[in-house]
Amino acid sequence: MQLDNASLEQLREWESQLATQYQAILAQKLNLDLTRGKPSAEQLSLSDALDGILAGNYTAADGTDTRNYGGLDGLPEAKQLGANIMDVDAGNVLVGGNSSLTLMFQVMLAAYQFGLKDAASAWKHEGEVKFICPVPGYDRHYTVCEQLGIKMITVPMTSTGPDMDAVEALVKSDTSIKGMWCVPKYSNPTGVVYSDETVERIAKLGLLASANFRVFWDNAYSVHDLIDNAPKLANILEATRRHGTEDSVVQFASTSKITHAGSGVAFVAASAANLAGIKKFLNTCTIGPDKVNQIRHTRFLPSKEALTAHMTKHAALLNPRFEAVLSALSKAFDGTDLGAWEKPVGGYFVSFDTRRGCAKETVRLAAEAGVKLTPAGATYPYGKDPEDRNIRIAPSVPTVPEVIGAMEVFVTCVKLASVRNAITQQA
Predict the structure, then answer these.
(1) Are strands 151-158 and 161-162 parallel, antiparallel or unpaired?
(2) How many percent of the chain have pLDDT more than 90?
(3) Which terminus of the chain is more solvent-facing, meaning fewer CB atoms within 10 Å of its CB: N or C?
């Protein structure tokens, strides 16, 4: 099906056929949800051994009684777990509660209100504050910026990461830009892994940007490979050390999609100077994190080898779901002008771009047919996709047969929305 060269008569014929197919779907009264990238119940069950793993032994390797107060920056063995996940030195890791998003908000709040270096470095003293947001991207990042009144500036995502020519031009020309969001491996939602060159150029941003610039490096999917010999992400910490810009990047990760999503462990990796600023802020709002949960996780995942073996089990459950999505897209849209998509080999999402002006209608049609998708526009700041094209597909929670059924609905809705849009353009 090629719409650009189709006659109005042909478009109307296709619309009639697709409308009939859509009515048959409505009669099925489906109820399927592809909205959020949550682990399935099967994935969560992989970590049920956490329950009771301590067997009454609450003492950490350094003798800490994990039931008590204290330990603001985490247990040594929990820092090592974070280091294993993020491929950094344990000495650069701070361990928090269950949510890396909470840590991101806290670090951004600290940088904005109090300064990570000292009071004079607080962003609030510099007037309007702006952040670079590669798009499509992660809606929760945008919410953090909105909450603090930080203006978001978009740059396009490419197959190798953010458009670095655009990023570098922005930070050189605008001193109010104080940072950039990054999901560097299996980016949310495109699944792109940043190239070595992109990582190197991001590491150099601290040489180009204004004072107190920080890259928020949300490495949420660092170990979430779906294939053997998965693409490797260059080490941003090592790159910043080479360029003397170590203070310009703050990294985040968690076990939220590794163990139990609602009761995991979150991590920050940063320079000594940044960690000092973060700890100063945290010291005013906590007596210490949940160290019992930290030690549970370190005994469940005591080594890199154990972590890798555990994630292989996740991949075995996720792979058929991703294959169902990608197979449906390929079968329906290869050789057409109806859409474009990446083919991720890790992470939790598949990003699909419709023809211009068709995403919202596709999502609306799917919802009426009983398939819930992330709202169109959610992958852009302020919920506004200027071309109304991007849709994020999250296949992890439904069963494989449910994903297959949902994709049949999705394909029909994309086609119907596209044909109706083309008719409108010609009429």
Answers:
(1) antiparallel
(2) 98
(3) C
State whether residue 154 is helix, strand or coil: strand
Asked whether the beta carbons of 81 and 265 are under 8 A apart, the reply is: yes
CATH classification code of 62-302:
3.40.640.10
Give the CA radius of gyration of the chain.
23
Among 204, 138, 141, 142, smallest CA distance to 167 is for 204
* Beta bridge pairs of residue 154: 133
Per CATH, is 8-43+308-426 categorized as 3.90.1150.10?
Answer: yes
Q: Is the pTM of this model over 0.85?
A: yes
Q: Are 136 and 380 in contact (CB under 8 A)?
A: yes
Task: Tell me the sheet residues that pair with 182.
Answer: 217
Give per-residue pLDDT as tens, 110-160. 999 999 999 999 999 989 999 999 999 999 999 999 999 999 999 999 999
Which amino acid, one-letter code, is at 370?
A: G
How far apart are alpha carbons 341 and 329 in whole angstroms?
8
Listed by start position, the domains of the chain span 8-43+308-426, 62-302
Contact 221, 85 (CB under 8 A): no
The Cα–Cα gap between 2 and 11 comes to: 10
pLDDT band at 1 (very low <50, low <70, confident <90, very high): confident
Residue 62 has pLDDT above 90, yes or no: yes
Give residues with Cβ within 8 angstroms of 222, minimum separation 6.
Answer: 85, 86, 87, 185, 233, 253
